[in-house]
């Protein structure tokens, strides 16, 4: 039986409008400028407001627009280049670490993290919450999970700030064998959204780092970056590991 080639899909109206709007952003608006309201834009381009919203949503996803509470929709600046693999590798808290610790708690790790750390699901670990800043802008949030076996002997009576400093200092005494990373697209939870000035459910880039020492995972960091404004950059090793998606996990 001869195969027939499927007909080309017609371009949706909102997609064409997105292209038109993108050109207008380049010529008619400056970075940081607030766009007219939806009614004015819909009338200007002769489209329904539902079509306009779809186009604006796509431009926001691509990092061309930024919606902020109490401000409106503004033209976004260029994406921020965020180096993920450092030139000088080391434990969190080392001299080359670009994260700032805001809290340290003792609580069970999420199930997926507990599996990576090979600890029981109900076992408490040290959880350090950290922020990454570039200038005045928060570009990333991070939760760093460290099991007690990695840093034994730390007093539970220390205040959160002191406990965080001691935990990070203890890490520096261990031999770091590797920092394998994986990157995937995710959505912002309520706390990450608040820290990153985004709405809950907004797209984010999630970087999972496993710190290996003595042939086992000694710590796990889950770093969350804004997908609309950040461009993650890696070192020049050129090594990329592709993990096939397991459809059984989605069932």
UniProtKB/TrEMBL annotation:
<dbReference type="GO" id="GO:0045892">
    <property type="term" value="P:negative regulation of DNA-templated transcription"/>
</dbReference>
<dbReference type="Pfam" id="PF00392">
    <property type="entry name" value="GntR"/>
</dbReference>
<dbReference type="GO" id="GO:0003700">
    <property type="term" value="F:DNA-binding transcription factor activity"/>
</dbReference>
<keyword id="KW-0805">Transcription regulation</keyword>
<dbReference type="GO" id="GO:0003677">
    <property type="term" value="F:DNA binding"/>
</dbReference>
<keyword id="KW-0238">DNA-binding</keyword>
<dbReference type="InterPro" id="IPR036390">
    <property type="entry name" value="WH_DNA-bd_sf"/>
</dbReference>
<dbReference type="InterPro" id="IPR011663">
    <property type="entry name" value="UTRA"/>
</dbReference>
<dbReference type="Pfam" id="PF07702">
    <property type="entry name" value="UTRA"/>
</dbReference>
<protein>
    <submittedName>
        <fullName>GntR family transcriptional regulator</fullName>
    </submittedName>
</protein>
<feature type="region of interest" description="Disordered">
    <location>
        <begin position="84"/>
        <end position="104"/>
    </location>
</feature>
<feature type="domain" description="HTH gntR-type">
    <location>
        <begin position="11"/>
        <end position="78"/>
    </location>
</feature>
<dbReference type="InterPro" id="IPR050679">
    <property type="entry name" value="Bact_HTH_transcr_reg"/>
</dbReference>
<dbReference type="InterPro" id="IPR000524">
    <property type="entry name" value="Tscrpt_reg_HTH_GntR"/>
</dbReference>
<dbReference type="InterPro" id="IPR036388">
    <property type="entry name" value="WH-like_DNA-bd_sf"/>
</dbReference>
<keyword id="KW-0804">Transcription</keyword>
<dbReference type="InterPro" id="IPR028978">
    <property type="entry name" value="Chorismate_lyase_/UTRA_dom_sf"/>
</dbReference>
